[in-house]
Write a structure and sequence with these properties.
The structure holds 2 protein chains of 2 kinds. Chain A is an all-alpha fold. In chain A, about 80% of the residues lie in helices and about 0% in strands. Chain A has 12 helices and no strands. In chain A, helix 3 packs antiparallel against helix 4 and helix 3 crosses helix 11. Chain A starts with a helix and ends with a helix. The relative contact order of chain A is 0.14. In chain B, strands 7-8-9-3-10-11 form a 6-stranded mixed beta sheet, with helices on both faces. A 5-stranded antiparallel beta sheet of chain B has the order 2-1-4-5-6, with helices on one face. Chain B has 2 domains: about 190 residues, Rossmann fold, CATH 3.40.50; about 100 residues, Alpha-Beta Plaits. Classes of the chains: A mainly alpha, B alpha/beta. Chains A and B meet through helix 8 and helix 9 of A and helix 2, strand 7 and helix 5 of B.
Amino acid sequence: MSQWFTQTFPNVVYQGWTGDTGWLTAITQTLFMTFWSALFGGLLGLIFGIGLVITAPNGIAPNRALFWLFDKVVSIFRAVPFIILLAAIAPFTKLIVGTQIGTTAALVPLSLGVFPFYARQVQVALAEVDGGIVEAAQAVGASFWDIVFGVYLREGRSEIIRVSTVTLISLIGLTAMAGAIGAGGLGNMAISYGYNRFASDTTWVATILVLIFVLIVQLVGDFLAKKLSHK
Amino acid sequence: MSQPIIALDNINVTFHQKKRTINAVKNVSVHIERGDVYGIVGYSGAGKSTLVRVINLLQEPTSGSVVVNDETFFKADTEAGAKTHISAKDLRNRRRKIGMIFQHFNLLNERTVTENVAFALQHSSLSQAQKDAKVKELLALVDLTDRAEQYPSQLSGGQKQRVAIARALANDPEILISDEATSALDPKTTNQILALLKKLNVELGLTIVLITHEMQAVKEIANKVAVMQNGEIIERGSLLEIFAQPTEQLTKEFIETATNIDKAIETISFQPLVQNLKSDEVFVRLSYVGDTTDEPLITGLFRDFNVTANILYGNIEILQDTPVGSLLVVLSGHAEQVKSAISTLADHHVEVEVLKGGSTL
């Protein structure tokens, strides 16, 4: 078995398990990038998404200026192709993390790349919360934060999990591109050690590993969204 | 006269859309007394929802004054003029004393029945144990104790509305606003909900503002009625006044929906008896309110005038413990005597409307 594997996937074996170019390292890097940029980008996206809903003309705290700001920031960041964003914000990245290459440096563009996408998704998810429910909450004297947390986020919970799943999957895609600035991970493995060296077995194994990640995220997301919905 | 619990004066609500201005409510004043069940009737788009939302400032008026329980919530003489506005914190506190229920129930879908009611109590000064007890008590009141742990999606429309009522009553309000609360329910459930509202009105002294397009609902429980059209109140009065002597065409239409008398007239007009009305017969509609019905007038017609009354249709409503009736009758006898009979009826406050025949009168 092991001999068959070595013969069929020579390049995969060549990469090794640990070490700078090893599979475990690549997997860890992908998970690391996905986790932290999901956290930062997710928080930022959630804030912008909620901000867009509540400052909208029909929101609970309409504010033309803030809405305009949220809307434009999200639109502009969404308009920039991620691969260009990586390069364009390099100086800013350096300012924040002290370097512009490597896995940690990739967190800055990844977070900024994913947040506008997530913000729009959250905005759509929360817009689905029935305005009548918000009004009923206001009628029983609910405060601003009661409505944000107790109504919007609670009522939109299942939908938010669903859009988070979609976002997380596209974020895994972005981490692969971040390989371009030396961020490592499975994307880098597939391109640098696989495609560029004509080692298609490496490309395939890296692809399958990414697919497994995506599948797990999708299954867990669907399960949670369904479990938490009582509609 | 006692101070009204809700006093809306000269309320204007204007919405500015891109190119046009919509006057949803035009210079409306309404005073609602403590303990009233005040029905506001109108077709959709008449401005009634907008008007009641002004009471708890879910809708801020463009101008006018809103006084609830002697406290000024809002006052502005003109759109551009100085505004007096209750503080946001006070408004939240006052809103807890004004319950509100809606056509589509507006329950929190992701919370159980218990949690929905408890949501209204989150700022209450009660201890957790007291809140739990309060929720239980409210669910018992609306007869939903066995549904406490279910989610709204598992309930029927009537049950959802009862949860909404329990939620609206959580902070022991003095006022309950019902915004088309029975419009999405079937007739039987509608009657159950209306009976519950009436019970709350009688037992808790709750003042109820009932907006609806169903005259039937108003007829069941209201003691006062206002009819709205195009943002204005076109007619108002006690339920009896409105039902017995409607003046506006729209009011008459609404009453017709609750009594169906016009439809009856139309049907009966085609009956042979009315089609082939003899020369000494006259087809009339008798309308009366209250005490008149205690006297055997119809019998009296025969006894005193030798006029027979053939009752073809009758509709008698008990509104506010007072009978209000309409009878479609064919009177026959000597022309002179029929004439006297009719004037006697009029003397007894029975309105007589000749529908067919009677050319000799």
